[in-house]
Design a protein that fits this description.
- With 355 residues, this protein is α+β, with helices and mostly antiparallel strands.
- It contains two helices and 20 strands.
- It has a six-stranded mixed β-sheet with strand order 1-2-3-4-8-10, covered by helices on one side. Strands 5, 6, 7 and 9 form a four-stranded mixed β-sheet that branches.
- Strand 11 and strand 12 form a beta hairpin.
- It is rod-shaped.
- The relative contact order is 0.09.
Length: 355
């Protein structure tokens, strides 16, 4: 009897310990997966800032000993998933004319450590992105092609429709503890996408995603969904990009500094301080004379402006020297000195001051 009591007490203690350990394990898994999401999102943001587009996913099944491992895929196929060297390319659930690319995170291209592209269960995080956004000059971030539906519980489970869902341009998916639809670090399918729960929507390669975070429970049966989703990554358009050792503005609009309605590619209200200014032409600010209001800077920089022999320059007009013939002699009467030359080329004489 005493032995039975001891065994029962040990069983209760063990059950309590296991329950607590599972809670700890779940919380630890949440933290590790969140850390991976944060690293990936930060790397993608940097990639967009540098390249003006999102990266193309890596093929979800590429083996980790393949030369293509860690890099964006270059081949695409609509039969998803297909051969290991192809990225899934499927229609958007929001607009069939738009395409969604689905694969793994190209961590080498993003320059992040390999462990961060796995979730807490050492499986590849799925990366989903609109195809148009992977092309330089794509409409970032207003090209939403991913339907991100929420699964809630209050007091019963409910999944919103795409008509009311938040639209996204990118998504990262951890396929949870049960690994339904997940791929291992070596590129092998961990568990087929056939749990019968709502999480199957996250592994059927169609750009329609169900996030059960708000339900506060994984659910069971038809409501089974222990996936973790991150899709709050809509990036602002990057106005400045780095390329070929410099930076440039990506917009086709005029840029104003202190000017609400700039009229030129760069319109500044105020002073500009510089050690040197290199310009092709100097122009009048009123533009009333059109092109004739501009002239080459070398005309006043010591070269390019001359008068014929026996002529003198009296002014600059329309970017050219105005010259008049010199008089045969430039002399002044006795007791005067030469002080200048008139517009007609005659000497300007002044009376000499007695010492």
């Amino acid at each position: 009897m005493e032995v039975a009591m001891i065994v029962m007490m040990l069983g209760l203690l063990m059950a309590s310990f296991l329950a607590g350990f599972r809670v700890y394990q779940a919380q630890r898994g949440e933290q590790m997966t969140t850390r991976s999401f944060d690293e990936i999102e930060e790397a993608i943001a940097g990639y967009v800032a540098k390249n003006g587009r999102y990266p193309v996913p890596m093929a979800i099944r590429v083996p980790n000993d393949d030369p293509a491992y860690g890099y964006s895929g270059t081949q695409f196929n609509g039969a998803c998933p297909d051969a290991h060297d192809k990225v899934c390319r499927t229609n958007s659930p929001l607009a069939p004319s738009k395409k969604v690319l689905i694969g793994a995170v190209p961590f080498k291209e993003l320059n992040i450590a390999e462990p961060f592209v796995y979730d807490a269960f050492k499986r590849r995080i799925t990366y989903v992105v609109g195809e148009d956004l992977t092309v330089a000059g794509g409409n970032i971030p207003a090209n939403y092609v991913i339907c991100a539906r929420k699964q809630t519980y209050s007091p019963t489970y409910n999944v919103e429709s795409c008509a009311t869902a938040t639209l996204q341009d990118i998504a990262l998916i951890s396929h949870g503890l049960d690994g339904t639809g997940a791929y291992t670090a070596s590129g092998k399918l961990y568990r087929a996408c056939s749990s019968g729960g709502t999480q199957d929507e996250n592994c059927d390669f169609d750009g329609d995603i169900i996030d059960a975070t708000a339900s506060k429970a994984a659910g069971s049966g038809a409501q089974r969904n222990d996936d973790r989703i991150s899709f709050d990554m809509k990036l602002n358009p990057n106005l400045w990009l780095q390329q070929a050792g410099g930076i440039f503005n990506t917009t086709e609009l005029q840029v104003g500094i202190g000017v609400d309605a700039p009229k030129e590619p760069l319109d500044v209200a105020g002073n500009i301080e510089a050690e040197k200014i290199r310009t092709a032409q100097i122009c009048s600010n009123d533009g009333s004379n059109g092109e004739t209001a501009c002239f080459d800077p070398q005309l006043i920089g010591g070269s390019g402006m001359y008068c014929p022999a026996r002529h003198v320059m009296i002014s600059v007009q329309n970017g050219a020297a105005v010259c008049v013939p010199m008089m045969n002699t430039l002399t002044c009467p006795a007791g005067q000195y030469l002080a200048g030359i008139t517009a007609a080329g005659a000497p300007v004489c002044r009376a000499a001051v007695a010492p």
